[in-house]
Amino acid sequence: MAETIRVLVPEKEVDKRIEELGKKISEDYAGKQVHLICVLKGGVFFMCELAKRITVPVSMDFMSVSSYGAGTESSGIVKIVKDLDEPLEGKDVLIVEDIIDSGRTLFHLMKILKERGPKSMHICTLLDKPERRVEDVKVDYVGFNIPDEFVVGYGLDYAQKYRNLPFIGVVEGVE
Ligand code: PRP
């Protein structure tokens, strides 16, 4: 059976929620500059949309990590594939993710980045699967809590496809 995509969160709802998050972040960071860190690749769509809705000064940097191990489970041992271009010292850092699942990636990434001396460090994710959590990470801004289903769109892929979907979907019809 060919795979199909079922809409879980329609585009309008995603847009509305990102707008709300942008407003909240703008209030919380009033008088400050927020330094957004995008964890590639999945975080890039969300970060761009979020950044457009933040009204305090924004700077951005990008990094790419891989966790050792194959398949859909992350091992939690984070290897930096592409590091940030700029130092974090003294910055109000907001890490932007597309999804938090076991929490392993962020748990280890936070440890690495905190050693670089940011003034503050918080987490914003579009999607959260709290029931899957293995590591205790404190998530400050969540777009949507979702059930444990295989989701794609808005940066999330299935075999590198579907990242460009403007909504959150569930892949069906795959083994
Ligand atoms: C996803 C997501 C997080 C991580 C979450 O990235 O963007 O970084 O997995 O999983 P965890 O909470 O269980 O650690 P992925 O490794 O799929 O890379 P990609 O964004 O390049 O697709």
From TrEMBL:
<dbReference type="InterPro" id="IPR050408">
    <property type="entry name" value="HGPRT"/>
</dbReference>
<dbReference type="Pfam" id="PF00156">
    <property type="entry name" value="Pribosyltran"/>
</dbReference>
<keyword id="KW-0547">Nucleotide-binding</keyword>
<protein>
    <recommendedName>
        <fullName>Hypoxanthine phosphoribosyltransferase</fullName>
        <ecNumber>2.4.2.8</ecNumber>
    </recommendedName>
</protein>
<keyword id="KW-0460">Magnesium</keyword>
<comment type="similarity">
    <text>Belongs to the purine/pyrimidine phosphoribosyltransferase family.</text>
</comment>
<keyword id="KW-0660">Purine salvage</keyword>
<keyword id="KW-0479">Metal-binding</keyword>
<dbReference type="InterPro" id="IPR000836">
    <property type="entry name" value="PRTase_dom"/>
</dbReference>
<dbReference type="GO" id="GO:0016757">
    <property type="term" value="F:glycosyltransferase activity"/>
</dbReference>
<keyword id="KW-0963">Cytoplasm</keyword>
<comment type="function">
    <text>Purine salvage pathway enzyme that catalyzes the transfer of the ribosyl-5-phosphate group from 5-phospho-alpha-D-ribose 1-diphosphate (PRPP) to the N9 position of the 6-oxopurines hypoxanthine and guanine to form the corresponding ribonucleotides IMP (inosine 5'-monophosphate) and GMP (guanosine 5'-monophosphate), with the release of PPi.</text>
</comment>
<dbReference type="InterPro" id="IPR029057">
    <property type="entry name" value="PRTase-like"/>
</dbReference>
<comment type="pathway">
    <text>Purine metabolism; IMP biosynthesis via salvage pathway; IMP from hypoxanthine: step 1/1.</text>
</comment>
<keyword id="KW-0808">Transferase</keyword>
<feature type="domain" description="Phosphoribosyltransferase">
    <location>
        <begin position="15"/>
        <end position="158"/>
    </location>
</feature>
<keyword id="KW-0328">Glycosyltransferase</keyword>
<comment type="pathway">
    <text>Purine metabolism; GMP biosynthesis via salvage pathway; GMP from guanine: step 1/1.</text>
</comment>
<dbReference type="InterPro" id="IPR005904">
    <property type="entry name" value="Hxn_phspho_trans"/>
</dbReference>
